[in-house]
Amino acid sequence: QLLLYKKYLNKPSITKDGKEVEIFANIGLPDDTDKVIANGAEGIGLFRTEFLFMNRKNLPTEQEQYEAYKDVATRLKGKPVVIRTLDIGGDKEVDYLHLQAELNPFLGYRAIRLCLDRKEIFMTQLRALLRASAYGNIKIMFPMISSVHELREAKQMLQEAKKALENEGILYNDTIELGMMIEVPSAAMMSDLLAKEVDFFSIGTNDLIQYMVAVDRGNEKIAHLYHEFNPGVLRMIKMVIDNAHEANIWVGMCGEAAANPYMLPLLLAMGLDEFSVCPSAVLELRYIMSKLSVDDIKSKLDTILMMAEEHAIEKYMEEYYDKHI
Ligand code: PEP
Ligand code: MG
């Protein structure tokens, strides 16, 4: 199997009928970059920067962060590197911030919410990201955006960081792309409005599903309700992709669903532009993709989106997969 996939190492990610997409990889720490390159990913679609903040005793400095981001961007040699700003909180803890314990941490003080409150932490990261952007194809992405106002506030901070660097005569890429995660249902529902404010979306299904079906993604007891093929979830994903394309921006997915082989035909049919998965899944996806025809699966999309039960959809997709792969 591995040998079979190896053949796809330096090939583009293209379907049997010629539709090209991008397969990127997710990383947590700069060292993961080796795996990204070894598996032939076309870029990094999600760099979870919170890991730079975890398992230590204090906040990483601007210089430390700058070096980490620059290191990854340099090693990717001009390929895209989507770096997500801090997503602390929820299930990711940072002791030295002494955050108050919360009854519902996934609905609480986390990610962009924390960054817009602790502006000095956010500003340090934005400066480090901008400085590193002079050395590669870095794109910045905000997590957990739930309103347009929140996005605009974060954009304002980025603008201030740019101005500060300019005043100090420090180089950065002034055409750096800015994107946001779609992982909160309110953001998905108004993705038409948000799409006018950013250069790209990345759908975070890990959180989007838990918020849509009201199931804590770590709770084993109700895990059966957390289902990627839930028709509500699928319809929302399609809506986000349509809204992005309507506004002429690209849209990817960096949640676990992007790596599900049975989900792949559906996402291709919906027109997803970029898949960001763990490095070890890149070649398998590229292989499966090469066996699929988008036109064929597209002709079945309406039928699938009218199916009422997640299990029926999953079974349909498994059968589709077995027939074509
Ligand atoms: C997601 O929510 O799908 C995602 C990619 O972010 P994380 O898993 O880091 O919350
Ligand atoms: Mg998330």
Describe this structure in words.
There is one protein chain. By secondary structure, the chain is an alpha/beta fold. The chain has helices at 2-6, 33-38, 50-53, 62-75, 111-117, 119-132, 148-167, 185-189, 191-194, 205-213, 231-246, 264-270, 282-290, 294-305, 310-324; strands at residues 22-27, 44-48, 80-84, 137-142, 177-182, 200-203, 250-253, 274-277. Strand 7 (250-253), helix 12 and strand 8 (274-277) form a beta-alpha-beta unit. Helix 4 runs parallel beside helix 6. It is globular and about 60 Å long. The two termini are 13 Å apart. Bound molecules: phosphoenolpyruvate and magnesium ion (MG). Residues 183, 204, 206-207 line the site of magnesium ion. It catalyses: L-histidyl-[protein] + phosphoenolpyruvate = N(pros)-phospho-L-histidyl-[protein] + pyruvate. The active site is at 254 (proton donor). Its EC number is 2.7.3.9.
Percent of residues in helices: 40-55%
> Cα-atom Rg, whole angstroms?
19 Å
**What's the overall geometry?**
globular
Structural class: alpha/beta
